């Protein structure tokens, strides 16, 4: 478990770039948080960390369910907001796109129900005042558990930690 305070969009960019750099093929990141919390914005910054070219602007996939971008590894950006539950998710075929060659980032993961992948990084975003965002990261599976330590160190160096 890692808690972070992102005090501004600049901090969010810093953190997103760190996450992108530490992501591997086959990884899944679930982004939870209310409407406008900053899930799509964080995904844009993760894309930067994956060296997705700036001209392929990361948009909300709400209408298309999934957008795909090509960086160091592919980024599959899914938005389950419009899906009602796991039957709907199953019918959409989205889960079949969680594939081994890229990083999958999923907004509104509560819709996944029992389809939630066992190995994943759960990120919850809460809004503070203005641009402030509170993040909690929980790793599931050995790959993310090990990496969360390194991500934590990188965030310490970037001064993204809450004050004690
Ligand atoms: N520190 C921050 N991190 C992320 N977004 C921020 C931050 N400060 C301000 N914002 C703004 O908050 C808004 C977040 O919108 P965004 O579309 O990313 O939210 P979302 O969680 O994807 O919403 P939705 O549930 O509708 O998909 C953007 O306008 C962004 O510029
Ligand atoms: Mg969004």
Name a few traits of the molecule.
seven-stranded mixed β-sheet, 164 residues, alpha/beta, Rossmann fold, 4 helices, binds magnesium ion, single chain, binds adenosine-5'-triphosphate
Q: Could you describe the 3D structure shown?
A:
The protein is an alpha/beta fold. The protein has a single domain (2-157), classed as Rossmann fold, CATH 3.40.50. It has helices at 9-22, 39-49, 86-92, 142-157; strands at 2-6, 28-32, 66-70, 74-79, 103-107, 120-127, 133-140. It has 4 helices and 7 strands, in the order βαβαββαβββα. A hairpin with a 3-residue loop joins strand 3 and strand 4. Helix 1 packs across helix 4. It has a 7-stranded mixed beta sheet with strand order 1-7-6-2-5-4-3. It binds adenosine-5'-triphosphate and magnesium ion. Magnesium ion (MG) binds at residues 39-40, 60, 79, 107.
């Amino acid at each position: 478990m890692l808690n972070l305070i992102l005090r501004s969009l600049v901090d969010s960019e810093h953190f997103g770039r760190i996450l992108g750099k530490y992501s591997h093929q086959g990884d899944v990141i679930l982004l939870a948080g209310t409407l406008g919390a900053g899930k799509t914005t964080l995904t844009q910054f993760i894309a930067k960390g994956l060296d997705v070219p700036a001209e392929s602007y990361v948009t909300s996939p709400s209408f298309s369910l999934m957008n795909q971008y090509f960086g160091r590894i592919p980024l599959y950006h899914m938005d389950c907001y419009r899906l009602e539950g796991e039957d709907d998710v199953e019918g959409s075929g989205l889960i079949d796109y969680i594939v081994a060659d890229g990083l999958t980032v999923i907004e509104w993961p509560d819709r996944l129900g029992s389809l939630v992948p066992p190995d994943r990084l759960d990120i919850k975003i809460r809004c503070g005042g203005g641009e402030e965002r509170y993040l909690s990261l929980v790793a599931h599976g050995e790959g993310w558990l090990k990496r969360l330590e390194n991500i934590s160190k990188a965030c310490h160096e970037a001064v993204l930690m809450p004050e004690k």
